[in-house]
Amino acid sequence: MGQRKVNSRALRQLAEDLIRRIAPEAGLPEEEWGGLATSLVRQWITYDGSAALFLGGQQVDLAPGRAPPGKPRGVAGPAPHGWLRQLTRDWKVSPDDLPEVIGQLNRGQSAEVVNADGVPLRLWVNPKEGSRGVEPLVREDIRPGAKRDYGKVAATALEQEFGEGLDPEEMDELACSVAKQWQRHGGHACLFLDGRRQLHFRLTEHGDGTCAVAATKVGVDLGAVLTSLGLPPEALPELIARLNLGQEVELRDGRGAASVLWHDPQARRICVRQAGPARPAAPAQAAPVLCPRCTAVLSLWREGERQQTCPRCGHTVALG
Prior knowledge:
Mean pLDDT is 77; it is low at 67-71, 140-145 and 278-288. It contains eight helices and 14 strands. 22% of the residues are buried. The radius of gyration is 25 Å and the shape is elongated. The strands form five sheets. It has a three-stranded antiparallel beta sheet with strand order 1-2-3. Strands 4-5-6 form a three-stranded antiparallel beta sheet. The chain has a three-stranded antiparallel beta sheet with strand order 7-8-9. The chain has helices at residues 8-26, 33-46, 83-89, 98-108, 150-162, 168-184, 222-229, 236-244, and strands at 51-55, 58-66, 72-78, 110-114, 120-126, 131-136, 188-192, 197-205, 211-219, 249-252, 258-264, 269-276, 307-309, 316-318. It has 320 residues and is of the alpha+beta class. It folds into two domains: 8-78, no CATH class; 149-320, no CATH class.
């Protein structure tokens, strides 16, 4: 909330109203409601209007909003999935310790616990940045030449964002793509959710051998990219699928000029480079950009090639 004057009484009333709405559904006893409301007010003041509570086994982001007449109202929205489950699976935190861990996080956005291997851990949540993490409180010896499993780190980050919304094959493909993007682009990776939203993953390496991943959603306009390249709107799903897998897309315009399109996750922009001069051929000899059956982007035509098979649906496309 920055430097604006804080009306703590109004915030307290707002927090209590919000807790009364969401706590019963999460199964929280009424004697805990007052402490949660206190935590909400403190978080809103400390984190510039943002707050996070763990309710019913998942993190919930909360913020004070304003109704059209100017009366304040509470806004609650679900946060990324699966973090508590990963604490028990990946960090070996005992399920019996989770209630106390959740209580500490709700009260102070930080918690300490000793896992099954006897390693003390610090857990933290930053509501303003929408980030959370786990840090060992003892320095681990990193073997010389040891390599981080970036694919596993990427899969964990994807599970936090999508929960069980991805099938195993898609999860593996996207985790591999995110891991490769991190290594090629200085810890930056992006996935397109649709033509107007993009999910950016920033991997930060720490000197003690640990790492942290922050995920943020940013706006994009792939429709404008399609228009500039002369591609129809129905080409968007195929373009998103290939960009999300880190692939370069080869295109040829109506004059026969070849170009290559790809996405730079660090600069967060679509890049296009010319692949070669236009062929001195009639427009009728130019390769089709899309498969007429499934709209998949076809490969560039080789010299003398008269037909090719769509790699996606098997349809045969011939030059006219």
